[in-house]
Design a protein that fits this description.
258 residues; alpha/beta; Rossmann fold; eleven-stranded mixed sheet
Length: 258
């Protein structure tokens, strides 16, 4: 089974959808899962912000969501998300399949390992290389403007960045900015699940390159305009995802416990 975290507009094309609720040690998930088929591939979809987009980024129950994915039998997860551009050459409508993140959040429950057994999971390569490669290859085949690799800085939200913050992030060489990639991606690694992020650029953050600063209205509008491209990518890539290999994700806990 392949897992997908994302927004609305995806479950409507799954075949034979079943609503599934999973109890977790970390409380309720954002919403029930929609479990169905896509070209013979079993898929579990979770709207991370809830069915009515009622959960702000910092209030998403990330641990419950990722734990429940594993309980369903998911081993590989795709996490599409809207993001802002920190570079003038990364335009709204482009996709970035990130290979790094920088955590600028605060106070989020971001680990499953709070003792008594101390566990240090390596974070050098936080996104699944195999899934990343497949998504980039598929996007290029579809003619979607995609960037292979990039650093996502994840902020707490729900506010957007100040102009000074945005300039600082860009000066560090970071590429895109969003509010949900962490700890979602990292929690998947802690459970030895594969995870790849697809960042769909909806805006220039805080007026990057002299462009109009980000607004919630613009994010929703551009996301809607490009939703078909995202769905096309997911629908083409998901049936091509194979069983989890013995990769950096599946072996994350080897030697990690002290």
């Amino acid at each position: 089974m392949i897992g997908v975290f994302g927004g609305s507009g995806f479950t409507s094309l799954l075949e034979r959808v079943e609503q599934v609720t999973i109890d977790t040690p970390y409380g309720a998930t954002s919403a029930p899962f929609a479990v169905g088929e896509l070209d013979g591939q079993e898929v579990a979809f979770m709207p991370r912000h809830g069915l009515r987009h009622e959960l702000p980024p910092a209030q998403i129950p990330y641990r419950a969501n990722v734990w429940a994915m594993r309980e369903l039998g998911v081993r590989r997860i795709v996490g599409p998300a809207a993001c802002g551009s920190l570079r003038a050459d990364l335009a709204p409508g482009d996709f970035v399949v990130c290979d790094q993140f920088v955590d600028r959040t605060s106070g989020r429950a971001d680990t499953f390992y709070e003792g008594p057994e101390t566990t240090h999971v390596a974070a050098v390569e936080p996104f699944c290389p195999g899934l990343r490669g497949l998504l980039v290859e598929t996007a290029r085949e579809l003619g979607i403007a995609v960037h292979d690799g990039g650093t996502a800085v994840v902020i707490q939200g729900p506010r957007f960045s100040t102009r000074a913050e945005s300039a600082f992030y860009g000066a560090q060489g970071w590429d895109v900015i969003n509010m949900t990639a962490y700890p979602e991606a990292w929690l998947a690694r802690e459970l030895e699940l594969c995870y790849a992020n697809v960042s769909m650029i909806t805006d220039y953050d805080a007026g990057v390159g002299g462009h109009e600063p980000v607004s919630a209205e613009a994010v929703v509008r551009v996301f809607g305009e490009n939703l078909e491209k995202l769905r096309a990518l997911l629908f083409a890539a998901i049936p091509r995802i194979e069983a989890q290999p013995e990769d950096v994700c599946a072996t994350a806990l080897r030697g990690a416990r002290v």
